[in-house]
Amino acid sequence: MNSVTSHIEIIILLPLITGILLFLIPDKLKLFKGISSILISAVALFFAFQTYFTEVFNGQINLFELRFLSLPDNDSLLSAVTAFTMLNIDSLARLIVLLICFFSFLILIYSIVYSNKERALKNYCSFILLTLGASVLTVFADSFLLFIFCWGFLGLTLYKLIKGYDEESSAAAKKTFIIIGASDGIMILGIAIIWKITGLYNMSEISIGTSDAIRITAFLALLIGSFTKAGAFPFHTWIPDYTKYAPASSSAYLPASLDKLLGIYFMFRICSEIFVVNQGLKLAILILGVLTIIIAVMMALVQHNYKRLLGYHAVSQVGYMIVGLGLGTVLGIAGGLFHMFNHAMYKAGLFLVAGNVEKNTGKEELDELGGLSKFMPVTYIAALIFALSISGIPPFNGFASKWMIYQGIIDFGKQPGLASNLWIIWLALAVIGSALTLASFIKFISGIFLGRIPDNTKIKEVNPAMWLPVIVLALVCLVAGVFAGKLVVPQLFGPVLGEISYTGIWDSSAIALLILFSVILGILVYLIGNLNKFRKDDSFIGGEVNRDQTGYEVTDFYKTIAEAPGFKHLYNMAEKKWFDIYDLSKGVVLKISHLFSAAHNGILSNLAFWVLAGLIFMFIFLLL
After folding, report:
1. Is residue 222 domain-resident?
2. 554 and 616: one domain?
3. Tens digit of pLDDT for each residue in 60-86?
4. Domain tally, the chain
5. Is there a single domain that holds both residue 378 and residue 501?
6. 593 and 550 in a common domain
7. Which of 49, 512, 584, 614 has a CA between 20 and 30 Å from the CA of residue 374?
8. pLDDT single digits (tens) 348-406
9. β-strands 208-209, 275-276: how paired?
10. Which domain holds residue 599?
């Protein structure tokens, strides 16, 4: 057995087996379960590093060739099964697996201290480890059958990592499970069509054009699955509800990081390998991408619950990834994949920041917070880095990936076709979305960390186990931005896409040095200025001190957006769930159910009529 197979065996089987065994240990031994889970995730992370950085193997291996599942040569039944258990190991898969292990390790460290009695989850560590193992197997799976089994299992762990502690949270958990489950069913339809067309189950062996309705149907069925997992419009509505009611650690682990990694990874496989996408489908993907950016960020602007605000931004940023992959160019795809990497870093960090605030204050509304930078300086600095990163401010990583996508759009405009001719629209909406993101994170940072301190505030910085993962993610955001062009992008995505050439001039290292110089210069000016000369006093109105009445909540300013002409009606419709695919579908199903209920009213003659009508329909169907 070679080292590649051995490493993959450990990364997959060790978390799965340990996760199952931890179900046997009572939750009162929470500390033991937490430490055990951290150690297992650390081992998986170590071997993921080994697999990514030291192995150059690219190719297929079989799941049944792993040590504990060795197969006798003369067993024909199991030999047939092995045709559906192939794993495909390549550079991108190894990168995604490394990130999955990295986030699992950080989240488990964070979770050993983070807890919310109201939202405490039973067997939390078990489900995290099961999610880790199943996610790795999903990424490596080459067989569609193995892939869809693991993909569906992750829907179950997603459901279990949000606790129904009241009616609203239970409804959010059910909504998540139904939307994810429905998309899995649609994916099965797409897989069945692919098998019917090609007779193949292994993704690496399939390349299908999108020249007719049946092939386009298969493509759209798989695309819906990737969009739903990643949280793209119009299949995104489960994410804001999930992030509002789930523990912050669950939101950081799944909707913020792993679900984005898996959804966009699968979209890359669909658009770049399994299918040859035609111009009409490219146009549709780009339209959905920019709609995801704009619609979600507009909803984020008016949120007062900071976890729900982050949930909408977890949707909005997916739009940039979709646009990048939808372009189909090397630079666009590299930008989309890099943004996938970056988003996982800063959005997971933002949810952990939200968990820190929630842990210390017990509050989730921006109206009830303020001034926490004085009490939680480490969390504040990390939150500021994440906010600048997601807003696309240099020299952080979010700017680097967005800049690549912008350049990819401009290059795409040089190609023939309707989608290419509309490049200026894709670029304008992407830039506008970034500006609106900055506006909403001014609200997030100001509402929580700046402004006046609420009365009787007596809190302190969180436990190091909670701020250490946040600082690690913040440092990654900085390093990945500063060294993006010359180191990070070529190292991470060069093996997948080949040489990546840039349009225009961008030297992230030089820009970082200039910004650092500006910050140091500003600090020196501040220190030299002798601030003791300035008088400090309370605010006053008309010459009279009126401190208690001069406060202006940051959320009040953003209310003007929701009440602006044109937007007010749309926001009201959104509040009534007019754009929620889940509520719309539920309404249609209930109406149909009511119609059938009215028809079957218990009167014998009516029942006889329906039986006769059913028999006639079956007879006609058999004749056809």
Report:
1. no
2. no
3. 777 666 554 455 555 556 666 676 778
4. 2
5. yes
6. no
7. 512
8. 999 999 999 988 888 888 888 888 888 899 999 999 999 999 998 888 898 989 999 99
9. parallel
10. 581-623
Copy the structure tokens of residue 100. 């999955």
Alpha helices in 23-69 (DSSP H): 30-49
The 10s digit of each residue's pLDDT in 136-188 is 999 999 889 889 999 999 999 998 888 767 788 888 888 999 999 999 999 99
The string of DSSP letters for 524-548 reads HHHHHT-GGGS-----EETTEE-GG
Render pLDDT for 490-510 as a digit per residue (tens, 0 to 9).
888 888 888 877 766 666 666
Tell me whether residue 537 is in a domain: yes
Give the integer Cα–Cα distance in Å for 108 and 596: 49
Tell me the two tokens of residue 254: 């799944």
Rounded to a whole number of angstroms, the CA Rg of the chain reads: 26
d(CA 272, CA 221): 16
> With contact defined as beta carbons under 8 Å apart, do 338 and 321 qualify?
no
Answer yes or no: do 540 and 619 share one domain: no
How does DSSP assign 579-616, residue by residue? T-HHHHHHHHHHHHHHHHHHH--S-HHHHHHHHHHHHH
Q: Which residues contact 595 (CB under 8 A, 6 or more apart)?
A: none
Residue 517 and residue 429 share a domain: yes
The residue ranges of DSSP E strands in 402-514, in sequence order, are: none
Helices 508-528 and 464-482: angle between axes, nearest 10 degrees: 120
Please name every residue paired with 65 in a beta bridge, in sequence order, or none if there are none.
none
